[in-house]
Amino acid sequence: MEEFNMSENKQTVDVTVAGGYKPDVIQLKQGIPAEINFKRINDQGCLDVVHSDALHFSEKLPVDVVKTVQIPTDQAGEFEFSCGMDMFHGKVEVK
């Protein structure tokens, strides 16, 4: 299970990108704005991009640079994200 910080008005989750996503399952509370901070720590090829059609984002991930993605939490459900070649996957669960 992921470690995340939550205040009354925002949820923040840090995801390490190295040979996959750690954590690869992120649970968020519905209705509270959320963001994921992706940090890639090695130069493994296809992990240089993270994207999600369901969550409407696509970000390049330079090594050792934190990229923050806003996650909509208005609808409950499970939403996939993956690397640029769709080899490594993660999931956001909004409950």
Automatic annotation (TrEMBL):
SUPFAM superfamilies assigned: Cupredoxins
Pfam families listed in its UniProt record: Cupredoxin_1
EfeO-type cupredoxin-like domain location: 7-92
Record-given protein name: EfeO-type cupredoxin-like domain-containing protein
Organism of provenance: Lentilactobacillus parafarraginis F0439
